[in-house]
Amino acid sequence: MFEIIKKHEVAPNVHEIIIRAPAIAKKARPGQFVIMMVDEKSERVPYTLADWDRAAGTVTLVVQEMGQSSRKLVMLRTGDHVAHLVGPLGVPLEIDHFGTVALAAGCYGIGAILGIARAMKAAGNRVISIVEADSQYLHYFRAELEAASDELIQTTIDGSNGVKGHSVDIVKRKLESGESIDRVIAVGCLFVMMLAGKVTKPYGVKTFVALNPIMLDGTGMCGACRVNVGGQTLFACVDGPFFDAHAVDWGELRDRRVAYSNEEIDAVASTAPVEHRGSRSCMA
Amino acid sequence: MAQAAKKKDIPRQLMPEQAPEDRVNNFEEVPYGFTPALAMLEASRCIRCKKPKCVPACPVNVDIPAFVALIQEGKFLEAARQIKQDNALPAVCGRVCPQEEQCEGSCAIGVKHEPVAIGRLERFAADYERHHAAVTLPELPPKTGKRVAVVGGGPAGLTVAGDLMRKGHYVTVFEALQEPGGVLMYGIPEFRLPKEIVRAEVDYLRQLGVEFVLDYVVGRNSTIRELLDDEGYHAVFVGTGAGLPSFMEMPGENLIGVYSANEYLTRANLMKAYLFPEYDTPPIRRQRVAVIGGGNVAMDSARTALRLGGEVTIVYRRAREQMPARTEEVHHAEQEGVKFSLLTNPTRVLGDARHRVTGMECIQMELGEPDESGRRRPVPKQGSEFVMEVDTVIVAIGNKPNPLVPRTTPELQVTKWGTVVTEPQTMQTSIPGVFAGGDIVSGAATVILAMGQGRIAARAMDAYLRGEDVAQPH
User: Fold this and answer.
1) For residue A203, what is the DSSP state?
2) B357-370 and B386-388 as β-strands: parallel, antiparallel, unpaired?
3) Residue A258's pLDDT is what?
4) Which residue has the higher pLDDT, B239 or B135?
């Protein structure tokens, strides 16, 4: 059992959840993920490690309610326990001195880039964090990201805060204006990540995206998370989760993600309704 | 002579089982098991050979004539305890061992008649003990103070844990999934091995004092080196299995509706998808299913798909006689209505615009000259391509060793297939104090062979921990 040390809603339907898990915190590195089962009957669901504190033995996840399992999780409170948490899984993101690194994120990805921003900055990079949301009230982690980045740019689709548009639009503008960007990391919905690859390709800027397809075990056993990268079948859990955005087969990935959506809808409908404030999913 | 003649007249007893038309609609175990009367009758067929051939044919050398004699006398609990001296998981082995190739395959009665049903008797004794809540713990020797880390809670690891606990060592089992048992939990279906039995066997080890650490991935949370140098373990056993699914590497294999048998079975077994929506993991429930492969895993996948309401065809490139699955499994699958498309090799999966499977292109094969394995090699028949209309393809053509521990243990010697190199007499690896066994060593084999290697490793590890010669364990 893993205790929830702190849980609060940082934006409508975006929950910061801090869990005591010393064995995970001890080894966590940027870009890795965990797999959680909320209770003994839950699915095994991957969540990106947003942050961790080795001294306190805790890990931080940013969770949006999107289906039956994340819904069970966000119904828990500080002091409650989740049944199973395993990690850190996946290959850590390559952290090195690249020069200028742009991190583009939306939705849960805003939280997920925090640990990456810190590590990239510590490695001597100029870190530009660009975070997008539908509207101003959906932004979160402003102070944390400001502290971890050299530049923080917020965008909104409705123009209610910061720049109007997608995070990748900023990347595109910067590249068009001749600003030098040496590496782009995109974390968020498939749409944002796919766009990131599209935008940077003509400029030949190395771009990595976090692919989180359906997973069961997270250790290479099930093969459910296979993704086609550069014509080769790889497993997101053990070969990823970060892959070269210019080599990913995006169409195939999108289809694989929605493969279980109908069954998932059945499960949500079969449980008692629950009230919650606001709800928005960034799933493209 | 009169005695022997009488024994000959008693036929091998069958276990009562669920009718095929009933069992395809549920996930309950197929055979009900022997009644005490049937067990005693079957046990009476054993002729108590002076030099029994069944014992050496058992990978863990259970004293078969001794336990069978106890069953014949009605001493069922004593029989169970007799088996447990050599086999930590009798209720499991009685169900999933390939007895026809091992104990029963060497039974003297079997030369002229049907062999004694040793597996069914083993299962009966273990079930009797469990059902009568009569499981007792053996007396443990004084503690040696030595600590052992077992990596992986599958059949090999559980055997090592039980054996070393009984030798007075402290044992911790590290398991990556949410429950120990390995393939017994995620791979073998409920209708063949009820999970309640695996849990009971694991509970027995807990009562013996084995500590289980779940949700812990050695290679990620700790490396083998850290277990030895920083975390106070005096020896390590690596039993991480062959968990990486192989695919056909044919076009269309990433379409929606193509699954590894591992995924398909893990959903159904470990995650209990067949109880969806009580359990959250959705099952894969489709109309027309093709299962590629001819082993036990293919049979398990096919029979699971039937129970989830599909029409199921096994697609196997060789002939029936060459199927690696146990005869009993093929028989059960056939009884339940699984179809067999033999001498058929898939060449391509076909899909629609939404990347969903609509069919599988296959080619017919014929048997040619024998290959290195001695089996006649299947060769494609020119122009015999055809399309099988299916919406789901399950690939059950085998597994590769799990690379997580080798990748994070540079000094661990592995073969080009990724299996860990060991001394067969001791299961010792290239690292002193680190032993290995089961599928991570042998590739992909059976539960009992993994247990046999666990047994050998435990003996050598005990010697190692006592500072004795590992190669000459007492």
Assistant:
1) G
2) antiparallel
3) 65
4) B239
Residue whose C-alpha is closest to residue A50's, from A58, A38, A42: A58
Interface A-B: count of C-beta contacts within 8 A: 110
CA distance A133 to A138: 6
Q: Read off the pLDDT band of B312 (50, 70, 90).
A: very high
| The CATH number of the domain covering residues in B147-243+401-465 | 3.50.50.60
**Whether A72 contacts chain B with CB within 8 A:** yes
CA distances from A37 to A23, A69, A85, A210 (A): 17, 8, 7, 21
For Cα atoms B240, B244, B247, give the angle at the middle one, nearest 5 degrees. 160
Task: Give the burial class of B443: count Cβ atoms within 10 A of its Cβ; 0-12 exposed, 13-18 middle, 19 or more buried.
Answer: middle
For residue A283, being part of any structural domain is answered with no
Residue B261, pLDDT above cutoff 60: yes
Residue B222: pLDDT band by 50, 70, 90 thresholds?
very high
A230 touches chain B (CB under 8 A): no
B406 contact residues in A (CB cutoff 8 A): none
Q: Residue B472's pLDDT band (boundaries 50, 70, 90)?
A: low
ipTM exceeding 0.90, yes/no? no
The reply to whether B2-131 and B147-243+401-465 are identical in fold is no
**CB-CB under 8 Å, A88 with B220:** yes
What pLDDT does residue A284 have?
34
B426 vs A217 pLDDT, higher one = B426
Between the CA of residue A158 and those of A161, A195, A280, what are the distances in Å? 8, 19, 14
Give the pairing of strands B288-292 and B392-395. Answer: parallel
B28, B31, B32, B38: CA torsion to nearest 10: 180
Parent domain of A26: 2-89
Residues A107, A282: contact at Cβ < 8 Å?
A: yes
Average pLDDT over residues B273-297: 89
The fold adopted by the segment(s) B245-399 is FAD/NAD(P)-binding domain (3.50.50)
pLDDT interval class at B376 (50, 70, 90): confident
* Stretch B34-41: mean pLDDT: 96
- Nearest chain A alpha carbon to B247: A223
Cα–Cα dist A212/B329, whole Å: 37
Tracing tokens 């030098």 back to the chain, one arrives at A180
* Low-confidence residues of chain A: pLDDT under 70: 213, 257-284
Q: Looking up tokens 């086609």, which residue turns up?
A: A228
Q: Three-state DSSP class for B346?
A: strand
Q: How far is B280 from chain A (nearest CA, A)?
A: 5
Mean pLDDT is lowest, of B3-7, B45-49, B171-175, for B3-7
In the structure encoding, which two tokens stand for residue B368, read together? Answer: 């040619």
Give the Cβ contact number of residue A271 at 10 Å: 12
- CA angle B272/B278/B284 to nearest 5° reads 50
Cis, bond preceding B245 (omega within 30 deg of 0):
no
pLDDT surpassing 90 at residue B385: yes
A27 touches chain B (CB under 8 A): yes
Chain B: nearest CA to A176, how far in angstroms? 35
* CATH match for B2-131 among 3.90.380.10, 3.30.70.1230, 3.40.50.300, 1.10.1060.10: 1.10.1060.10
Identity of the residue in B222, B244, B354 whose CB atom sits nearest the CB atom of A221:
B244
Mutate to test the interface with B, among A257, A261, A263, A270 (most CBs of B within 10 A): A263
Closest CB to B278 among A37, A41, A216: A41
The mean predicted confidence, pLDDT, of chain B is 92
